[in-house]
Amino acid sequence: MDPCIGKVILSEEAISARVKELGAELSALYRGLNPILIVVLKGSYIFGADISRNLKVSHEVEFIRCQSYSGTASTGTVKMVTGLSKNLDLTGRHVIIVEDIVDTGLTLQKISQEFKGKGVASIKTCTFVQKVTKRRLDDVPDIDYVAFELPDLFIVGYGLDIDQKFRHLPYVAVYTPDKDAT
Ligand code: XMP
Ligand code: MG
User: Fold this and answer.
1) How far is it, in rounded angstroms, from Cα 52 to Cα 23?
2) Global model pTM greater than 0.90
3) Mutate to test the pocket of ligand 1, among 4, 38, 68 (most ligand atoms within 8 A of CB)
4) 172-175 and 155-156 beta bridge pairing
């Protein structure tokens, strides 16, 4: 494995157990409501699929794509690469935004704007990781469903990448850039 891949902080087993738990919680809450999972690409593609497979109630899945990171640092601006489908009618629908990581919360703020004026019945947020960080913006609403709270480290695996690599790892590991490499 790449020497930059450090300590495994979430094992495959721990992730699977927690996703099952969240799936059961959401299944109980959304019975009969046919919610729409809005999976935020690319980072949430595996978490979103696992949540969907563990939801034992009828639901739909849609995707949007945002981009904010370059390497291990946020660019400070969030680009909505692919927004909601133009013909998606959200009137009266129950929406669950499925994110990979909430760090500063900037991405989530940008995504929330997509739902303004669409007449949704409810909107909740579900994230795989919430980082414990002082960089969280003041006006970011609390996340409704958090799979794991982790310290402020750059992590890869289970959908999370560094420059598009390591998404396929079944666990989450700390990424430590090689300081000697130039
Ligand atoms: P903000 O600051 O907008 O950041 O809440 C959230 C987005 O930044 C990416 N991100 C990471 N991606 N490992 C990653 O692979 C990380 O440790 C990490 N921290 C933030 C991610 O795309 C997330 O949606
Ligand atoms: Mg990313």
Assistant:
1) 8
2) yes
3) 68
4) antiparallel
